[in-house]
Amino acid sequence: MKKTISVSNGAATLDTNRRNFLKLSGVGLAIAGLALVGCNDDDDFTIMENGVFDLGKGDVGVLNYAYALEQLEADFYTKVVNSFYTGISEAEKQVFTDLYNHEVIHRDFFKAAITGAAPNAILPTLEFQYPGVDFKSRTSILATAKALEDTGVAAYNGAGKYITNADYLVLAGKIVSVEARHAAAIRDLINPKSADFSGDDVINAMGLDLAKEPKDIVAAAGAFFKTPFTWKERGI
Amino acid sequence: MNILRLLDKLSNDKFFTAEASRLETLNSISSFGKKAAVAAIPLGLGVMMSTPAHAETKTSSSAVFATPLIDALQLALTLEYLEDEYYREGLAKAGLIPSSDRVIFNQISKHETAHVAFLKSTLTALGTAPAAKPTFDFTVKGAFDPMGDYKQFMILAQAFEDTGVRAYKGQAGNVMSNKDVLTAALQIHSVEARHASEVRRLRNQKGWIELGNGGEMPAATNAVYNGEGVTVQAGFNTATAFGAAAGSAAYDEVLSTTDATAIASLFIV
Fold it and tell me: What pTM did the predictor assign?
């Protein structure tokens, strides 16, 4: 069913300064829960070209992007906890169980959020593959977890600027810091008492963590996605 | 003037004027380090507090009217000054930090120093004089002994890092009008989260915050963790799947300008 209220992306972007001003003045825009702000009628239907799903436009595209990455992490950790690697310690079991919990919650959150905001434009459940990953090996699992968490941080940091709705931005913000906590913990497990938790491989001389464009994230994480998708608005 | 008191007053929105939105469009901070042609006006905030009508007649009037964006950066800078000073002092104190942990705190310290420099150049590039470094008292008038007791040093370190994460998050809406600043803020915010995770783990806590509880932290730090126990996000119940601890830990919460200011003020003379 198409929503009758629609605010185009164009208006939202141009009026951002004004909207922030209005919000600050207490004349807030009523953004109830996950109302369809920042989406126009074009987003109200699933976009499939040659059977390949497109993440969509504007904020819906960004939400679907986050949803895709959370699906990946949830899928990975589900496999990890369903069959812990050989020699796993109690402490590591606890960490991986928590990571599994958090990523599943994130995934289900996005599913509910996007279903509420744009039910006809939500990314389907994707299938994943883990070439070269040995689920019995501690080294392999820690390395993969590290890659996924660092990727998550870089993805959220790089996508923030594409979000037009302030509430969505805050929600993304609430999640990215948890991904960063995860990343630090995994890195600490790999190399305890070292600088790796916040290593020079990810934090630059200005003290800034990675922020990557969606194009680069999808290229880097592409091997894990068995189900293809596009995000034309972002050149993917 | 105590910058934090000013910021506190400014979180009362009526001080923002129509000038604010115009100023936000003035600058992209694509060239860091480029000094703006502006006299060193100490925190346009002070001028703004009196009356917005007294505009400076300099070529760039941006320093006179603080905007939500500028205020956010000044708050961030104040918090980074605090952390930078704290870790420098801790690392300089002989016998405080065990050698096994020095690598960790050196890395954290390096980042906080970089953050101070970064925020100062950002503010300068935006045409505003960066806030001056306050004088800190990390003992809070003798209530704590972080430089004499490593356990306390770690407790406050954790409090500062967890505060930093929440404080940056609370400013997201205020900086989103400038995409460069927003991205940089996100890139600093995730570093603070890495720091927080590591310091928590050094204290044998989980890297994430479960419920509204800091993890064997003294009551004096309650303000840092109040509100962290929420289990509903935009109408979605995050506790359904695995319980409240997991549901609350999966999300970090914002701290308002007022609350972040209040916490930092405890340590400022």
Answer: 0.81
